[in-house]
Write a structure and sequence with these properties.
- The structure is a homodimer.
- Chain A has about 700 residues and is α+β, with helices and mostly antiparallel strands.
- Chain A has 3 domains: about 70 residues, Acyl-CoA dehydrogenase/oxidase, N-terminal domain (Butyryl-Coa Dehydrogenase, subunit A, domain 1), CATH 1.10.540.10; about 160 residues, Butyryl-CoA Dehydrogenase, subunit A, domain 2; about 325 residues, Butyryl-CoA Dehydrogenase, subunit A, domain 3.
- Helices cover about 50% and strands about 10% of the residues of chain A.
- Chain A is built from 23 helices and 13 strands.
- In chain A, the strands form 4 sheets. In chain A, strands 1, 2, 3, 5, 6 and 9 form a 6-stranded mixed sheet that branches. A 3-stranded antiparallel sheet of chain A has the order 4-8-7, with no helix packed on it.
- In chain A, strand 2 and strand 3 form a beta hairpin.
- The radius of gyration of chain A is 29 Å and the shape is globular.
- The two termini of chain A are about 30 Å apart.
- Chains A, B: It catalyses: a 2,3-saturated acyl-CoA + O2 = a (2E)-enoyl-CoA + H2O2.
- Chains A, B: Keywords: FAD, Fatty acid metabolism, Flavoprotein, Lipid metabolism, Oxidoreductase, Peroxisome.
- Chains A, B: It comes from Phycomyces blakesleeanus (strain ATCC 8743b / DSM 1359 / FGSC 10004 / NBRC 33097 / NRRL 1555).
Chain lengths: ~700, ~700
C-alpha cells in the first residue's frame, strides 16, 4: 500500500435532523421578505452585479479560495500576485467599472500586494500632484506600468507623523532631493506592497531646504528597477516578516542612503519648493482635507458593517444547526421526538449574537448618514460654509474608533459562540479576525482618535455654556448639551418595560448620558485643573458616549425618515428593523449601565425593566434570526466558511475541508522515521509489542 | 548580481535614548528587591532550576526558536516531532525529574504532538485502569513504546458528553467490544496527537451491553500499526486541518467501522463489564473525582498567571522604550533635552497595562490558595468529610472561566497596547494569543462553567435564607450571604478617596455586590417563576461577581496571612503588593461599577472618589512597572519577543528578525516573472520608462 493514499471520510450522513432541514424550518419562520430587505440595503442593481461577478470569480482559478486556509507565507504571496495580475486582465475582459472591480475585490475578501497601489498610491497621485506629475506618475500607475505603495510609518514612529525621521534635503546645485534614513528607527516599516511588489513609493520625509526643516512631505520615489525588479542602488528594501494576519500582503521596510531623486518627485499640488532657490511655498488652508478624512471614515464604518454581517451570518446559521443538550423546561421537538436544543434557542447565545446583528444594521444607517452629510458638507464648503465640518469631522474620528472596535470584538464573540469549531480555520472566522484587526490601528489608532472627538465635545460644551452655540438640525451635539444644561437633574420617565421602546425616551437618555460625562470632564479640567493626560480614561469614555448617541440616533431617525420603508408592503421589514433599533439601543444602555445610573438618571427599578425588555426583544427577534442574516446576501464564495454555508451542510463541509489538509495526503507523517519509529521500535525490540493490533497482543498476555 | 543575496540592514543605531538606557533608568527607580520578589513567588530552588534548564535548551537545536514564526504547517509538525523525540533523550541524559521536564516544556512554550500523551493519555491510564491494564498500557506508554491521545469530543458533540454517538457494543461470543461510528457527526474531532502521531487512543464511547446503553465510557484502542504506523483496518484517521492557533499539534479525527477490541481494552478501575455475561457493574460515588477537577483548574489558574505575566512583561518593557509625542504639560527630559514621551507615561497606557500586572499577582495568590484548599480537602475527604468540597469545586468552575477569559483578553489588550508592532509576530503576542485561546473552551466552556458556580450559589443562598447554613472559615460564600441578609440596604461607608484602600471596606463591597446579585436571581426564579434559560445572562454575572470576590479576597488575605512577607527586609515588597491588591480591587470595581451602583451601595460622589483613587494608584505603581514585570523572571528564551527583550534592544531585534524572513532570502520575489513583469514591460515597450531610475526618466521629459 502506497503512502500517498489521501484520507477519505466514509459516506455517512450527520445525525438528524440535518442542517438543511433545520435552516429550512428557520427560514419558514421569517416574518418579512428577505430579498426585499437586501434590496433596501444594497439596491437591486448592486445585488445583480454582485451575483454576476460572483459567477465570474467562481470559475477563475486565480480567484479560487479552495486552498486559502492551507498556504504557507510564500504561497500566499505568490497566489496573491497571480490574483493581482489576473484582475487587471479581467477588468479589461469584463469591461468592469470601478464599482464592479470593487465588488470583485470585496468578494475575493483578501488583501494582496497591489491593494495599496489602488487604495493609497493612485488616490495620493490623484489629489497631491501637478498636471506634469500626473503625466509622469499617475498615468503609468493607472496602466500598471509602475506599481506603487505609500511609505509613511517608520520603525520608531506611527501615530506621531510629525516625529518621522526620514529626511529629504533639497540640493540646489543639481535641483534634486536627497532622501536619507539617519537612524535604524527611521526605516520605513509596515508599508503594504513595498516588501516585494512595488516599483515606486510615496515616501513621507521631512523636507529640508535652505537649512530649515519643514516637517513631513510626500515624494514619489522609484525604488526598484523596471528591467529586472532589483532594488536600486542606495536602497535597502524587504518584507517585514510574518504578522498576526494580512500575510497575503508584503508589508515592507525601506531605508535610503543619500538617495537622490529629481525635483519633480516632490508632490507639489499644495506646498512647493522653488527650483534653484529652494524657497518653500506654504500650502493653503488644510481644512479642505478634513472632508476626505470624513469620506474615508464613512467607508470604514460601512466596511465594519460588512465585517459584522459576515461574522453574524456564520455564527447565526451554525447556531441554528448545532444542537447541544436538551433544555428540559422547553424541549425542542422534531417529528414528535425530543431533539437536542439548537444552541440559538439558549438566551445566552441570543444575547451574544443578536445585538451584533442589530449593530450591523446600526452601522449601515450611520454609514449612509455619514456619506449623506459628507456630500452636503462638500457642497457647503464649496460655498465657503464650514459650519457642518467640525461636528462631522469630530464625530467621524470617534465613530471610526467605536465601530471598528465593536466589529473586531464581535468577530471574536461570534467565533467563540461557535464553540470548538469556531477555532478551526474552516469556520472562516479565525483568519478573518486576524485580517480585520489592523482596522483598530490604521487611519488613526482607536485610542488616540477618541481624543480628537472629545476635544471637540469639550470645546462645544464650553461654547454652549457661554451661549455661543445654537442648536441646529446638523449639530445634535449642541442640542443634547443645551437640553442637559437646561435640566441637569433630569430623570428617566420610564414606568414600565415597554416605555423603553419609545424612541424619544431612548434618545433623551443617550443625549443626557453623553452630556453628563462631558460636563464632568470639563469640570475636572476647567475648574480643578486636572491635566489632559490624567483625564485620558474619561476622555475616551465621553467620545464613546457621544458616538453611541450618534449610532442610536441615526438608526432611529433613519427608520423614521426613510420614505421607502413606509409602504404597506414594507411594513414587516420596517417592523423588524424597529425592533432591532430598540435592541441595539437598550443592549448598549445595559452594557454602559453605570453611566446611566451614575447621574441618577436611571433607577434600579427602571434597570430591572430595561433588562427585562432586552430579554423580551431577543425573544421577539429570535424567529427572524436566520432571515436577518440571509438578508445580508453574502454568497458562500465570499464567506468561505464550513459553518456559515447557506445550505446548512456544516458537517459535510468540515469533513470535506479536512480531507484537503496537506498532512492528510499521506498516510504516514514526515518525521515518523526519525522521531517516532526509534521510540516505538524499542518496545518492539523488547518483545512485548511485536504483533500489530491489540487483539493479538492481548491474547498473548 | 545573484538573486540569492539576503537583505541586510545598514549598521545604524536607533534614535536615542536607546532602549537599554531607558530600561536601565526604569530599573533604577524600582523601590524593592526584584530578585527577592521572584524568590517569594517561585522559590529560589525553582528559579535555579529554570536558569539551568534554560541554558540546556538554548544550546539544543531541537529546542531552537529562531524559525518559529516563519514555519508552514508541515514544518511546524515535523519540528515539533523532533522536539518530542529529543526531549525523551534529554530527560534521560539530564536525569530530569517530572518537575524539571515540566519546566523544560514551560520554557519551550509550544504544544506538540506528544503533549496530550503526557497530559491526558498517561494520567487517564494512571487513574482509570486495573493493575493488569497498567502493565499492558501504562508501562509501555511511560517508555514511549506506544504514543497515546484522548478521544472524547466528536464533530457533533463537545460540551454535552452525554450526547456522544460513538458506540462500544459488548460481543459476548468473542469477549470483545465493537467500536463503531454510526454517523458523520460521530467522528471523533479535535483530538490532540491523534492526527498523525498517536498509536493508541483513549476512546470515549457509549457502552452497550445486553442491549442496554450505559452512556460514555473509556476504552484504550490501538489505532496505528506499530510496524509502519499505518492506520489499522476499519479505522479512518487524519488531521482536522489548520486552526486559529495550536498548529504545532496534529489535532485529529477518527472514525471506526465495526472495529473490534478485546475485553481488556475497557478501562475498568471504576465500572466493569463482566466477561461472558456482559453484566455491567456501576462505579462507586463519583464525588471523589471532583477533587481532581479542582486540581486541574487550580493549575489552569496558575497557568493563566503565566499568560498574563508573559503578555505584560512584553507590553510594559516595550512601553518604557517606545516614545511617541511630547506630553506638553509634563515633557520628559533626557540629558536636559526634551524627548518624546515613553508611552508608559500616558495614563491611558497605564490604565490598559497596570491592572493586568496586578491581576497576574491576584491569580498567583488565588492559584496558591486553591492548591492549599485542594490539599486540605483531599485530607478531609479521606476522613469522610465532604464539607469543603462543594464550595471549592463550585468556585473552581467559575474561577477557571473568569481567569482564562481575563487572561486572553489581557493578552489581546497588551498586544494592542504595543501599537502597530504588536501586530508583527515578532512581538511574541500574536501566536501566543492564538495558542492560549483554547483555554476558554476546553476543560469546560467558559459560559457553561458559570452555570455550575451559579447553581451552587443559588442553592447556598436558599440554605442561608432557610437557616440551614452556618458561616465558616472555609466557606466565605455563606459568610457574605449572611452579612447581606442581615443588612440588605447597606451602604459603602467611604467618605474620602483613601477610604477605598481599606481592605475591609473592599471585601464588604465585593461580598455585598455578589450577594445582591444572587438574591435578585433567586427572586426571579423562585418567586417570579422565570426559567433557567431566560436567566442565563444574570446567571453568568453572579458567577463572575462571586469569583471576583474570591480573587480580591485571596489577594488581600494572602498578603495579610503570609508570614514570609512580614520581615522588615520584605517591607518594600509587601508595600508594592498591597498597592497592587488595591489597584486590582478598585479597577475591578470600576469595571463592574453598575453592579455596585444598582443596589444603591455606592453613590455618585463615592464613584468619583473611587475613580480618583484608581488614577492615583496607577501613579504610585508607575515607577515600579518595569521592576514588577522583571520579577516575573521570564527569560528572553521563553518570551521569544523582539518587543519584550530584557535589554530593551527592541528595534535591533525587529530588524534582525525581519532579515530572517524567507521572502528576504532573494532579491526578486517568486511570481515576478509571471505576474509583475508582463504588466511593467508593457510600459517599457511603450518607450516611456525605458531607462532605470527616475533621474533618467525625468531628465527625458
Amino acid at each position: 500500500m502506497s503512502n500517498n493514499i489521501p484520507t477519505r471520510f466514509p459516506d455517512l450522513a450527520p445525525k438528524g435532523p440535518s442542517g438543511e432541514l433545520l435552516l429550512a424550518a428557520e427560514r419558514a419562520k421569517t416574518s418579512f421578505d428577505v430579498k426585499d430587505l437586501s434590496r433596501f440595503m444594497y439596491t437591486k442593481k448592486w445585488l445583480d452585479k454582485m451575483t454576476q461577478i460572483t459567477e465570474v470569480l467562481e470559475s477563475e482559478p486565480a480567484f479560487d479560495k479552495t486552498n486559502r486556509y492551507y498556504q504557507s507565507r510564500e504561497e500566499k504571496i505568490s497566489t496573491s500576485l497571480w490574483k493581482d495580475r489576473r484582475l487587471t486582465e479581467l477588468v479589461k475582459e469584463q469591461k468592469w467599472s470601478e464599482t464592479e472591480t470593487q465588488i470583485a475585490n470585496f468578494l475575493f475578501d483578501q488583501s494582496t500586494p497591489f491593494t495599496l497601489h489602488y487604495n493609497m498610491f493612485i488616490p495620493t497621485l490623484r489629489t497631491q500632484t501637478t498636471d506634469e506629475q500626473k503625466k509622469l506618475f499617475l498615468e503609468p500607475a493607472l496602466k500598471h506600468h509602475i506599481i506603487g505603495c505609500y511609505a509613511q510609518t517608520e520603525l520608531g514612529h506611527g501615530s506621531n507623523v510629525q516625529g518621522l525621521e526620514t529626511t529629504a534635503t533639497y540640493i540646489p546645485e543639481t535641483n534634486e532631493f536627497e532622501i536619507h534614513s539617519p537612524t535604524l528607527t527611521s526605516s520605513k516599516w509596515w508599508i503594504g506592497g513595498l516588501g516585494k511588489a512595488a516599483t515606486h513609493a510615496i515616501v513621507m520625509a521631512r523636507l529640508i531646504t535652505n537649512g530649515k526643516d519643514f516637517g513631513p512631505h510626500p515624494f514619489c520615489v522609484q525604488i526598484r528597477s523596471l528591467q529586472d525588479h532589483r532594488p536600486l542602488k542606495g536602497i535597502t528594501v524587504g518584507d517585514i516578516g510574518p504578522k498576526f494576519g494580512f500575510n497575503t500582503v508584503d508589508n515592507g521596510f525601506i531605508m535610503f542612503e543619500h538617495y537622490r531623486i529629481p525635483h519633480v518627485a516632490f508632490l507639489a499640488k499644495y506646498s512647493k519648493v522653488k527650483a534653484g532657490s529652494g524657497e518653500y511655498v506654504k500650502p493653503p488652508n488644510a481644512k479642505l482635507s478634513y472632508g476626505t478624512m470624513v469620506f474615508v471614515r464613512a467607508n470604514i464604518v460601512m466596511g465594519s458593517r460588512f465585517a459584522l454581517a459576515k461574522a453574524t451570518t456564520i455564527a447565526i446559521r451554525y447556531s441554528a444547526v448545532r444542537q447541544q443538550f436538551v433544555d428540559a423546561a422547553n424541549p425542542r421537538k422534531w417529528d414528535n421526538k425530543i431533539i437536542e436544543t439548537p444552541v440559538i434557542d439558549y438566551t445566552m447565545q441570543q444575547y451574544r449574537l443578536l445585538p451584533a446583528v442589530a449593530a450591523t444594521y446600526a452601522f449601515f444607517f450611520t454609514g449612509r448618514e455619514m456619506l449623506r452629510l459628507y456630500d452636503l458638507n462638500q457642497e457647503a464648503m464649496k460655498n465657503g460654509n464650514f459650519d457642518l465640518l467640525a461636528d462631522l469631522h469630530a464625530s467621524s474620528s470617534g465613530l471610526k474608533s467605536l465601530t471598528t472596535t465593536m466589529a473586531i470584538s464581535s468577530i471574536e464573540d461570534c467565533r467563540r459562540a461557535c464553540g470548538g469549531h469556531g477555532y478551526s480555520n474552516f469556520s472562516g472566522l479565525g483568519q478573518f479576525y486576524q485580517d480585520y484587526l489592523p482596522n483598530v490601528t490604521w487611519e488613526g489608532d482607536n485610542y488616540i482618535l477618541t481624543q480628537q472627538t472629545s476635544r471637540y465635545l469639550l470645546k462645544t460644551f464650553r461654547n454652549v455654556v457661554a451661549g455661543k452655540a445654537v442648536p441646529s438640525e446638523y449639530n445634535q451635539t449642541i442640542t443634547y448639551l443645551t437640553q442637559y444644561l437646561e435640566n441637569p437633574k433630569a430623570k428617566c420617565p420610564a414606568t414600565k418595560p415597554a416605555d423603553f421602546l419609545n424612541p424619544e425616551l431612548i434618545l433623551s437618555a443617550f443625549g443626557f448620558r453623553a452630556a453628563y460625562g462631558i460636563a464632568q470632564v470639563a469640570e475636572q479640567i476647567d475648574r480643578h485643573g486636572r491635566t489632559w493626560n490624567s483625564m485620558l480614561v474619561e476622555i475616551a469614555r465621553i467620545s464613546k458616549a457621544h458616538c453611541q448617541f450618534v449610532l442610536v440616533r441615526n438608526f432611529i431617525i433613519g427608520l423614521q425618515a426613510d420614505a421607502s420603508l413606509s409602504t404597506p408592503e414594507r411594513r414587516p421589514i420596517s417592523n423588524v428593523l424597529k425592533t432591532l433599533s430598540a435592541l441595539f439601543a437598550l443592549y448598549t444602555m445595559e452594557q454602559e449601565l453605570a453611566e446611566f445610573l451614575l447621574p441618577g438618571y436611571l433607577s434600579s427599578e427602571q434597570t430591572a425593566m430595561l433588562k427585562a425588555q432586552v430579554i423580551s426583544l431577543l425573544d421577539e427577534i429570535r424567529p427572524n434570526a436566520v432571515g436577518l442574516v440571509d438578508a445580508f446576501a453574502l454568497p458562500d464564495y465570499f464567506l468561505h466558511s464550513a459553518l456559515g454555508k447557506y445550505d446548512g451542510k456544516v458537517y459535510e463541509a468540515m469533513t470535506q475541508m479536512a480531507e484537503r489538509e496537506p498532512l492528510n495526503h499521506t498516510q504516514v507523517v514526515q518525521g515518523y522515521e526519525e522521531c517516532i519509529k526509534p521510540l516505538i521500535s524499542q518496545g518492539q525490540a523488547e518483545g512485548r509489542w511485536r504483533q500489530d493490533g491489540l487483539l493479538q497482543v492481548a491474547s498473548k498476555l
